Amino acid sequence: MSSGYHVNCFPPNPKRQVVWAALWRFFFSHRIGADDVVLDLGGGYGDFINNVKVAKRRIVLDKWPGFTAYIAPGVETIVGPVTDLNAVADGSVDYAFASNLFEHITQAELAMVLAALHKKLSKRGTLTIMQPNYRYCASEYFDDYTHITVWSHISLAEFLASHGFEVTEVLPRFLPMTLKSRFPTFPILIGAYLNSPFKPMGKQMLICARPMR
Length: 213
Description:
CATH topology: Rossmann fold
Helix content: 25-40%
Number of strands: 7
CATH class: Alpha Beta
Number of domains: 1
Structural class: alpha/beta
CATH architecture: 3-Layer(aba) Sandwich
Largest sheet: 7 strands, mixed
């Protein structure tokens, strides 16, 4: 994406840091270990990877050159398209993560990403995807003009399965669509929301998968 997109449509927002710090505390910290190598695909402002507090290595990739200015010390940065993972060693990644990314690329490009991840993920490696669920946000999905591909929790899970991934977890309503919603930004309330079986405003999904060997 161009720098104009980040300035006009997706500027830095301090509220995102609060939300992602809480997501790490209440959710991702239970899934990432001290011996893991973490790869953040399309990391943007580093909201996810900067909040990963324990990991052997942290790597983030984005095609926007300006993203490197927002990445925390100690995190390795790669400037390039998500379809090119040649800078990542084969079999080295234990936890790959993509947030609000795959709606911005074509199905053919996602197939390329998945093919590359088959090589880059370790024997215990997994892929976690968080992004808008079209089933619950159809009326606003294309308010972002860079959204080009529609995914629901069903279609994305089936796409993963058809490209050699075993889907291990599907959360159709994980988070609200954007910070512009009435989603609370107090950490304790975010933790309560994540742990609740009821997800009002839940329009983003979370899907976990691993390569079928």
